[in-house]
Amino acid sequence: MATPKKFDTMQAGLLPGLLLPLLTLVLIWLIRYDGGLLEFLSDFQSMRMLSKVISLCALPNLLLFFICIWTQRNFAARGVIMATLVVAALMLILKFA
Question: Among 4, 5, 34, 78, which residue carries the largest CB count within 10 Å?
Answer without folding.
Answer: 78
